[in-house]
Amino acid sequence: MKKKLWGGRFTEQTKASVESFTESISFDWRLYKFDIEGSIAHATMLAQRKIITEKEKKEIIKGLEIILAEMNAGTFKFKKNLEDIHMNIESALIERIGEPAKKLHTARSRNDQVALDLRLWVREQILITSNYLTLVQQGLVKKGKEYFGAIMPGFTHMQHAQPILLSHYLLAYVEMFERDEKRLADCAKRLNESPLGACALAGTTLPTDPMITAKLLNFGSICQNSIDAVSDRDFCMEYVFALSLISMHLSRLCEEWIIWCNDEFSFIDISDAYCTGSSIMPQKKNPDVLELIRGKCGRVYSHLTTLLTLFKGLPLSYNRDMQEDKVAVFDAAETVHSMLNIFAELIANTRFNSERMKLACENGFSDATALAEYLVKLDVPFRKAHEIVGNIVRECVRLNRKIKDLDLETLKRHSHLITKDVFQVIGVENCVMNYKSSGSSAPRLVKNRLAHWERKLSKG
Ligand code: ARG
């Protein structure tokens, strides 16, 4: 009987059904690079602390580098009966270099090993996610510049509210994605502690120095409690929460664009190459990419729920349940990256119909607030001004006219304070030109903000 690396106390062979139920190599192979990086650091520390010899260390590292090369080349044969990535690599090392390999797992457990691998993996993924976010932000800013000056209806309750610049709308999402990026950076700060050295849960009686491995692996410090080090996966949850917010922001944006490309709106036109057709209705051109981004958002949330639920009743310290964390965090990252990637492409292939937007904006009395503020400047209390303009709108509805098409006399009937300069206030272009407050849709401010983002995003 071929013994497992942990098989000393066992008298029976593991059932094949148990092996296939408990294996994780089918998904945790993704950790191989970090597992090897961690092992090299660990062996280096063991040698520095004279727990193994320099010669043994060199052989271990050489063996690990060969395995790494095979894995990179795709020629390494992963074995299910070896459970996971850690056992696959350790067994392969023993096969290749023999005795010294058996010393690698000194003062280490798979518990601190997997906690380390996962931290290293999340740390790298955070950079990848950030890069994709930047790509989407750059796409939005580019469109903002291209369509600078285009006016669209701003909505509240899905009803026309006030006119805004299309660029201002696009930059709203750039701000959201920027906060997402900061959330990721914040998560990276907190995961910056090395768990290696915690061993199974209690540490070790051997003279190790976890600071050595922490430095070699570019961690700022080490986990201060060995039980905590092997038990928590809060860094995964934070990461997947950040991914969930990114998905939510993207999904909202997609929802809007799905509405915008239907015939009633026709605010945008997405290139054929980024749409799909119907198997029965020949006329159809559907925004499936946008819909799938919206759909996949639910999948990302489900991973956050999985992680939170997985840990809510787990006694300290390591429990095998924790192996399931990787299924969730791997898929969450892959899914969000694919969403961001396709969306960045889609933005570049989307045309905004500024004429339609402007036309839509003319309807719905979205200049009413500007008129009320005009009255406020003439010292009418805001509540009174609100009522006066409400009456004007009611009259417009009755006459089927826009506010700007009323003559001065009609307006004066509502307030004698109104003079002909009111025509520099009403009408959607005037509204946009007259915004003043910081963060508003004022063209000058939006232009500055576009320049700000362009500068910031090009620095990377
Ligand atoms: N494959 C395991 C995981 O992903 C590795 C740790 C196993 N540790 C143990 N003591 N069984 O969590």
From TrEMBL:
> Does the keyword field hold Lyase?
yes
SUPFAM superfamilies according to UniProt = L-aspartase-like
What residue stretches are annotated with the Argininosuccinate lyase C-terminal domain? 365-432
Q: Which GO terms describe its biological process?
A: L-arginine biosynthetic process via ornithine
GO MF annotations in UniProt: argininosuccinate lyase activity
Q: Which UniProt keywords apply?
A: Amino-acid biosynthesis, Arginine biosynthesis, Cytoplasm, Lyase
- Where primarily located? cytoplasm
In terms of InterPro entries, this protein maps to: Arg_succ_lyase_C (IPR029419), Argininosuccinate_lyase (IPR009049), Fumarase/histidase_N (IPR024083), Fumarate_lyase_CS (IPR020557), Fumarate_lyase_fam (IPR000362), Fumarate_lyase_N (IPR022761), L-Aspartase-like (IPR008948)
**Pathway, per Swiss-Prot/TrEMBL?**
Amino-acid biosynthesis; L-arginine biosynthesis; L-arginine from L-ornithine and carbamoyl phosphate: step 3/3
The GO cellular component terms are: cytosol
One family from Pfam that matches here is: Lyase_1
Catalytic reaction list: 2-(N(omega)-L-arginino)succinate = fumarate + L-arginine
Q: Where in the cell is it found?
A: Cytoplasm
Similarity field: Belongs to the lyase 1 family. Argininosuccinate lyase subfamily.
Q: What protein does this entry describe?
A: Argininosuccinate lyase
Q: Which organism is it from?
A: Kuenenia stuttgartiensis
